[in-house]
Amino acid sequence: MRAGLVMLADTRTNAGVDNISTYRKTTLWGRPGKSVLCLTAAGNLALTQAVVNRLRRGLEDGRHLDDATDMVTAAEIVGESIRAVHRADGPALEAHDTAFNVTFLLGGQMRGESVRLFQIYSAGNFIEAMSDTHYLQIGEHKYGKPILDRVMGPDTRIHDAIKLAMISMDSTLRSNLSVGMPIDLTVIRADTFEYDLERRIDETDPYFLTIRQRWSEALRAAYLDLPDPEW
Amino acid sequence: MRAGLVMLADTRTNAGVDNISTYRKTTLWGRPGKSVLCLTAAGNLALTQAVVNRLRRGLEDGRHLDDATDMVTAAEIVGESIRAVHRADGPALEAHDTAFNVTFLLGGQMRGESVRLFQIYSAGNFIEAMSDTHYLQIGEHKYGKPILDRVMGPDTRIHDAIKLAMISMDSTLRSNLSVGMPIDLTVIRADTFEYDLERRIDETDPYFLTIRQRWSEALRAAYLDLPDPEW
Fold first, then answer.
1. What ipTM does the predicted assembly reach?
2. Which of A41, A50, A154, B223 has the most CB atoms within 10 Å of its CB?
3. pLDDT, mean of residues A197-217
4. Which SUPFAM superfamilies does its entry note (chains A, B) (predicted)?
């Protein structure tokens, strides 16, 4: 977090395993030179798109995500947009027994603040990653969590964080069909107030393939290298 | 599976994070020299204990797990015991809005058969691991799945399978409080018709600590060794 922020999202949505599609779940916001914001979504696609559409249009009281000058206000605006969608769509979803299920990550930096990262819930409230938490995950998070728990730290370099995000995503991609390529990578370096990198990565990306193959080989070598039990 | 079977279960049960306890989830069955069976449980503890108690007592029609002479019949007996518990407890659970939630793994070998592994569901039906599937997991399975997906194969040695089971469990233990030490390890080598190993492993076990520490170091080294992106 000191060096900046790496955000990575897949693009798979599904209405059952027999009905999968590709949708971008990452949107970028802010005013270059002043603020830089990346928003990623998990949950019901109709709902997360409705939240983003309301953010694009601006809230009913006139507030706009791009106008926010501190990150807490930005997170509040996203939360308020979620609540507006809940007011509009919640009763109809309830009538159809469909859960109101959305989660967002909002990361970025405003002039005068450090890089900050928030997780915003269906109820529109949110938590912020603090000094003991070096990453946040939403959606299908379990497969990719162990490597982050073992290695992520406050002083992780940006390039290492990119590698870790790729490894974590690759573990999830291999083990769960509800997560799929391509993936969208956004990198924000601290105190630049612009996007260092915004890149779509598909199955043919040479760097991703290198990471995937070399990581598998390294794991295989590492476990073979562990001592056998003496029992 | 060719070399045999490694089964590993934790002992954590919880009724909320403020109420955790330790219960053995592994039971052993069979007749030495003829059959060797290991049963592990996940789900509601009252239900899984009820299923095991009925198995110990024998089914109402007189069948007993120790008497089975083929693995499919053994899996059917476990399934029938689950159905008997469902008939006895299901209506009361439903009245209290509690899910009937149990899953078992049954692994072992009978004379005249190869080593076989089954997963038995709440409904008492079951699947068997076939030639394309080299492991099965129940309970909190996601954290520990990626390493198994990457490395497990039909020709994995028993000692390597023990290492992999420990690494997979360690990943889960680190990332999820609902899984906890000690862990129970059972090893069945093909064509011996007895338990090669039955061992309880706690946080002070030197081999487990070695695996935990060296695996973490190896992962850290492996990811640092990956090339940086050129972007």
1. 0.81
2. A41
3. 94
4. N-terminal nucleophile aminohydrolases (Ntn hydrolases)
> What are residue A22's DSSP bridge partners?
A12
Q: In which region does residue A119 sit, left (phi positive, over 0), alpha (psi from -120 to 50) or beta (all else)?
A: beta
Interchain CB distance below 8 Å, A219 and B150: yes
Low-confidence ranges of chain B (pLDDT < 50): none
Percent of chain A whose predicted confidence (pLDDT) is above 90: 86
**Could you count the other beta carbons within 10 Å of the beta carbon of residue B172?**
24
Provide, as residue numbers in chain B, all residues whose Cβ is less than 8 Å from the Cβ of A229.
Answer: 159, 162-163, 207
Q: Which member of B207, B225, B229 has the closest CB to residue A159?
A: B229
pLDDT of A17 reads 82
**H-helix segments, A12-44:** none
Provide the β-strand partners of residue A6: A187
Residue A11 in contact with residue A173, Cβ under 8 Å? no
Q: What digits encode the pLDDT tens for the residues A22-58?
A: 999 999 999 999 999 999 999 999 999 999 999 999 9
Cβ pair A167:B223 closer than 8 A: yes
Contacts of A164 in chain B (CB under 8 A): 223
What 3-state DSSP class applies to B90?
Answer: helix
Say if residues B26 and B40 touch (Cβ distance below 8 Å): yes
Query: Cβ contacts (< 8 Å) between A167 and chain B: which residues?
Result: 223
The pLDDT score that the predictor gives to residue B135 is: 94
Q: In 3D, which of A97, A95, A118 has the Cα closest to residue A107?
A: A118
Map out the domains of chain A with their CATH numbers. Answer: 4-223 (3.60.20.10)
Give the C-alpha separation, A29 to B151, whole Å: 41
Interface contact flag, B150 A199, Cβ < 8 Å:
no
Q: How confident is the model at residue A159 (pLDDT cuts 50, 70, 90)?
A: very high
